[in-house]
Specification:
heterodimer, A: 114 residues, mainly beta, seven-stranded mixed β-sheet, four-stranded antiparallel β-sheet, B: 113 residues, 12 strands, globular
C-alpha cells in the first residue's frame, strides 16, 4: 500500500513567486492534515480536512496560503506570493478517523524562498 | 494553551550508550502523549505513545513513561545504535481530543560507531 506522497520534495523559488505543494494521502483516508516546520522550530499545525471540507484551518499563517482538497482526494497548498519566512518543510499527513487512529506522515516538501 | 518543550540538540552519543531525551508538556486536562521519529530522508513515524498517567509506551527498545506529577514524557533507550540517528519529536494530543498532535521542536540524535 502506498504511503502519503508529497510533491515536489524540494523547491527553491524567489520571493514574490508562487509555489503549489501537492499531497496524495493514503487511499481511503478521509482526514488530511498540513503541518509546517521552520528550521530548528516545532512542527506547527496548519489545517485539517475531512474529505473535501476544511475542518480546522486555525493554523494557517495568513491569506497568502490557500489549501484545497477537491473531491476529497489529493490536496494542494499554494503560497502566493511567497516570502522569505515561508521557507521550511511542509508535511502532509492522513488518517482514517479522527480519534485514536495513527496519523501517517509524508516525507515533506522542502521549500526555500530566496 | 497546549505546548511541548524538548531538550535542545543535537545529542551526540557513542554506540551502546544510554539515551535520554527530555520532554515536558503544558496542557489542559490529560492529553495523550507521543514520540515521533524522522529518519534521514523519510517522513515522520509514530514511535510510541501513552494515553494516561503512569502508562509506559515502548517500541524498538525505546521507552517513555507518562508522568502526570512532573508533566513529563522522557524518551529513553538503554543502548543506542547508529541506526537510531534521527530527529525525535515529542507531541501531545491537541485540545478537544481531535487527535491533531501538537509537536515540540525536535531533538536531533547522532550516534557514532
Amino acid at each position: 500500500e502506498a504511503g502519503v506522497t508529497q510533491f515536489p520534495s524540494h523547491s527553491v523559488i524567489e520571493k514574490g513567486q508562487t509555489v503549489t505543494l501537492r499531497c496524495d494521502p493514503i487511499s481511503g483516508h478521509d482526514n488530511l492534515y498540513w503541518y509546517r516546520r521552520v528550521m530548528g522550530k516545532e512542527i506547527k499545525f496548519l489545517l485539517h480536512f475531512v474529505k473535501e471540507s476544511k475542518q480546522d484551518e486555525s493554523g494557517m499563517p495568513n491569506n497568502r496560503f490557500l489549501a484545497e482538497r477537491t473531491g476529497g482526494t489529493y490536496s494542494t497548498l499554494k503560497v502566493q506570493p511567497a516570502e522569505l519566512e515561508d521557507s521550511g518543510v511542509y508535511f502532509c499527513a492522513s488518517s482514517q478517523s479522527r480519534s485514536g487512529n495513527t496519523i501517517y506522515f509524508g516525507e515533506g516538501s522542502w521549500l526555500t524562498v530566496v | 494553551g497546549n505546548s511541548v518543550t524538548q531538550m535542545e540538540g543535537p545529542v551526540t552519543l557513542s554506540e551502546e550508550a544510554f539515551l535520554t531525551i527530555n520532554c515536558t508538556y503544558t496542557a489542559t486536562g490529560y492529553p495523550s502523549l507521543f514520540w515521533y521519529v524522522q529518519y534521514p530522508g523519510e517522513g515522520l513515524q509514530l514511535l510510541l505513545k501513552a494515553t494516561k498517567a503512569d502508562d509506559k509506551g515502548s517500541n524498538k527498545g525505546f521507552e517513555a513513561t507518562y508522568r502526570k506529577e512532573t508533566t513529563s514524557f522522557h524518551l529513553e533507550k538503554g543502548s543506542v545504535q547508529v541506526s537510531d540517528s534521527a530527529v525525535y519529536f515529542c507531541a501531545l494530543e491537541r485540545k478537544g481530543g481531535s487527535y491533531i498532535p501538537t509537536f515540540g521542536r525536535g531533538t536531533s540524535l547522532i550516534v557514532h560507531p
